[in-house]
Amino acid sequence: MKSYETDSIRLQSERTQFREHSVPLYLTSSFVFENAEQGRALFADEIEGNIYSRFSNPNTSEFIRKMVELEECEDGFAFASGMAAVFSGMAALLQSGDHVLACRSLFGSTHHIFTRIFPKWGIDYTYVDASNPVEWETEIKPNTKMIYIETPSNPGLELIDLAWLGELKTKYNLVLNVDNCFATPYIQNPARFGADLVTHSATKYIDGQGRVLGGGVVGKEDLINEIRFFARQTVPSLSPFNAWLLSKSLETLAIRMEKHSQNAFELAKHFQKHDELEFVKYPFLETHPQYNLAKKQMKLGGGIVTFIVGGGYERAKRFIDSLEMLSVTANLGDTRTIVTHPASTTHSKLSDEEREAVSIYPGLIRVSVGLESLEDIVTDIEQALQKSK
Ligand SMILES: *Cc1c(COP(=O)(O)O)cnc(C)c1O
To answer: pTM for this one?
Structure first.
């Protein structure tokens, strides 16, 4: 590792005889063996090399090598989506009879894996309150194998103390698996606090431009070997084209996260005392209940701001419909600012109590702050707040 910025730009697949500066796209399903003996050695894992693009490809290898370096891990595997990564990181390591301790506030599809899919295979789970460290320890069972968390959570922006969980997982010999999609490797490196696996949806900030899906799991070599074996036979691996785009996107991740975080922080400060809002939440605002923890484990506050509009569910929908420039869509981590009303969209399948438990109030609005001029973003939100009164 040289430095974050240099590695994200300079780590590349080997040049071909054409001496290209930018890495080409390798659209090939398989690779030719030099001879029978080399084919044998490749399949026996005695030498490194590409066999078939479901296993590896110069583009996917370049992307995941960068992710491994940036997350300060040993090894990794690239997947076709964040969910393929989330699923494989758990399914490859867990078996019938195992138990997972997870934070209550999870990405919707991850929640469905725990509640609807794993129970069919005899894998059990317990959800714990993110901000209550004592609860994590009391809920550990003899068959607990993994701790699975997201910090900051979506969209509640609740944080979990990574250093504390790192100690806990060591004490009980558990696998700590952290979905680091919201923070990105530029802002937070869970492996520094003892995480064994770091899971990513590259669809969000890593692509950063709302174009492709992708994902990855990076972590300890022995665990990645098991995940790689599982993934090669089962779930979709990342396509070379998406890997090529994502590897290019990583070159600008640092500078984009600086600007996303700056715009988000300024936006949060601007609306902090607004008459039409009940609460504005951002990890680096001093009013965030876990401000000190945010400062301790995150380099920047990230690109997501949430606020609660006065007037609840119906007012929130009127606010969304009053926006003129900002995008109303369910994605996040784009150059374009995206505004979402979780209670009526991404988190509408949860019961009122479940939403309340993870700080998703009827009037909560999530803003994925983009890279447009801050003034234009503020102006649109301001006029929509006035119009929706
Ligand atoms: C989007 C997201 C995922 C799933 O990623 P996909 O690329 O959409 O499959 C997982 N975790 C978090 C926190 C996400 O935001």
So the answer is: 0.96
Q: From the CA of 301, how far away is ligand 1's center (Å)?
A: 19
Condensed to tens digits (0 to 9), the pLDDT of residues 244-301 reads 999 999 999 999 999 999 999 999 999 999 999 999 999 999 999 999 999 999 999 9
Ligand 1: does its nearest atom lie under 6 Å from the Cβ of 260?
no
Q: Domain 253-387: which CATH class? A: alpha beta
Share of the chain above pLDDT 90, in %: 87
Task: Please determine, for residue 129, whether its predicted confidence score (pLDDT) is greater than 90.
Answer: no
Q: Which CATH number fits domain 4-250: 3.20.20.70, 3.20.20.80, 3.40.50.300, 3.40.640.10?
A: 3.40.640.10
Q: Which of 256, 254, 284, 253 is nearest to 269 (CA)?
A: 284
CA of 360 to the centre of ligand 1 (A): 18
pLDDT in tens, 205-229: 999 999 999 999 999 999 999 999 9
CB 202 within 8 A of CB 215: yes
Q: Which of 86, 113, 334 to mutate to test the pocket of ligand 1 (most atoms within 8 A of CB)?
A: 86
Residue 302 main-chain phi, psi, to 5 deg: 85, 180
Cβ-based neighbours of 180, under 8 Å, separated by 6 or more: 71, 188, 189, 190, 198, 199, 200
